[in-house]
Amino acid sequence: MNLEAIKSEVEANVPGCRLEMVANPSPSDQHSLRSDAEHAVAVAIVLRDAANLRFDFCSNVTGIDWPSREVSEKVKVKKLVDGVEQEADEIRKTVVPGCLEVVYHLFSVEKKHGPLVLRMRTQDRDAGVHLPSLTPVWRSAELQEREVFDLFGVVFDGHPDLRRLLMWPGFVDHPMRRDYVDPDDYEYEPTAHDEVPRRAQQHRGDAGGKQLSEAEGG
Amino acid sequence: MSTAIVPTAHFDLEPMSEPGKEQLLELAMGPQHPSTHGVFRMNVVLYGEQVVRLKPVFGYLHRNHEKIAESETYLGSMPYTDRLDYMCSITNNWAYALAVEKLAGIEVPERAEYLRVITGELTRLQNHACLIGFLMQDMGSSGTPLMYAFREREKILDLFESLTGARMMCNYMRFGGCRADLPAGWLDQARKVVADFPRFLDEYEQLLVSNEILMDRTQEVGVLSRELAVSAGISGPMARASGVDYDIRKVDHYSIYDRFTFRVPLGSHGDVYDRFMVRLLEMRESVSILEQAMRDIPAGPIVDPRMKVRGFRPKPGEAYGRIESPKGELGFYLVSDGSPNPYRYRVRPPSLINLTVLEDLCVGRNVGDIVAILGSIDIVLGEVDR
Amino acid sequence: MVGEGILKGMAETARNFFGSYVSKDRLTTVQYPEQRDAQIEAARSFPFLVYDGADWHDGMRCVACQICEKECPPKCIFIEKSKDKKPDANGKPQFYPATFNIDISVCMSCQICVEVCPFDAIMMDVDTDLSTDDRFGGLLLDKQRLSKSNEYYNAIHPTEAAAVDARLAVERARQEAKAKAAAEAKAAADAKLTAATPAQPASGEPR
Q1: C16–B73: do the CB atoms touch at under 8 Å?
Q2: Whole-complex ipTM
Q3: For residue B379, how many other CB atoms are within 10 A of its CB?
Q4: Which of B103, B176, C140, C185 could form a disulfide with B319 if both were Cys (CB 3.0 to 4.6 A apart)?
């Protein structure tokens, strides 16, 4: 199953789509195709229905959080030092904007090949988190996209029933994001993990709270 | 061009009525329920006894396994994988070990592969026995078939305890092989258990297969069509009962399954009875695989000698590794950034995805059929909610 | 005939019921706690610290390297290293744990601490009669409650303990041989020095 061939076939059938191949440096040899959000549904339909591809089994839908990070690199610039133009090193910091990524693993029950890894990225992690839902193409994405919505915050447009899956309906925030802070307003039991009761102690201000014994890490 | 079948419109929790069906009853089955196989809730809207709408509610056993794995080392997540599908801890370990071995390019020695197949197929035997027992129990046979199945399962759990140290939370696989080698006398004991198993299956078939009550309650109930099964990502015995010829042991050629001759039972109706029979037949095939594996197991190391237990840092990259667990396709998707902890760790839970079609199977049937259908899907909440 | 399947099933149940009077295979109930199944050797319940010899503190193998604390997945081990050293079973001065707590309400008996310990100091117990009425303190086992003798370890896991003892004996023999060789070399060097000193080297003569 040649990824280049699949990419050219899909590009031939879906005019205007922007597919790029994402190489996977690990020995697993599972390279992916990244699609843009606009044409994703059309790409998915071609992947599912093309006679030699027939990826009719969407096995896994995953979300990945890539927070924004600062990259500093040394660049050589020409600077004026004492009137003489010299090459000097300057540290330039750039902020790589973060995004959320959704990864689909596709297999073919008919042709028994796979996996084909299809990816999509959102624009950013705040307001631009909309992606098209692939549930109309593969029904198995229904519950898994709900989970990605619940735990990461990606809003899937076109999903028939986008509600939280694992967290309760009144829950705020998206737990699997890398910057998620767990609340400490729950009841705790003193354990050997002294970080938990210590943080809760601070939170309460410990007015009349239980003093941790030595064994409990207090 | 085929279109996927999508579920009905958004379910709101307000009581509602439809013209002609004014007396709708909204019922919550679970989370405390003897037949929901764990803490599982279904909001069911009934017209009399007939199901009009069914929406499952998940999350009662959510233990954020995936987030914990991001702060644990790769090896430290192995005992947590035991607790995903807690009935089949060894196959969970195997899927995770397979994914990490794909990620880091680790090879597994021969003897370790045979050990994995032997313990994996024993796990399949005890899981299917347990499931069929519980299916009967849920349909009201008050424990007799359940206890017969558990009698056999106890023998297999004793085998696990003498090999791995624990009956259920085995923590047996390591990256590049297995943790412990067979103690003296284990193989003879295992051969005896496997030799006795077909007699138990014969007795079970005599007890149940032509039982009129079972046939009335399960035939033509919860029929899952082949197209819906493939589209909804259904895998494992549930898909094979609907005629989908897909067994990952045969398709992916993982481990050493190519060396064993075994058949893959397929159903034609896709009803509860077919799922039950497919599992019975799969147990017979597992017995055959076990006999072949225990006959051919070679001597040798049980773990890749280059693997160290501590300080494992795979190179950056990602991998998706999957196996045919007793419930379906269990996969692990790992993204590594070169550090000792995974960047993203995802479990592809067969129980959750097999539940996608629960509403489609139950609508139009009676409340009693919900229990039979849910039992035949074979869910374990540890895997559904992780 | 209607009901034939049910009758066949009842025949099967009858066979099991009457068979349980004659065959041990069909009556598998064990009247716990009066009867117990044979203890399986490889079973694991919670960790314990092994000590050699008679005194639990002096003979403790643990040197507070804290590897088990780092590798424990649910982080149930809490260790504080001592400031001083004490001689271990081989006589070499080693650190020891001033505090070693395991919270067995958190421990999930995964046995990873046993696998990574380089000193064979922590092993898995088989005792499951651990109920207590103190939910927090009673399930937080300290150094003393965790320490059990090597004889106990040999009693519960004979094959494993025999292998560990053999390995430690080999290691001890190697250490002793090394110490003996070092002592002999030192004695030889001392002898050479005492033999060399009375004869004064002539001035300027190269040695």
Answers
A1: no
A2: 0.88
A3: 25
A4: B103
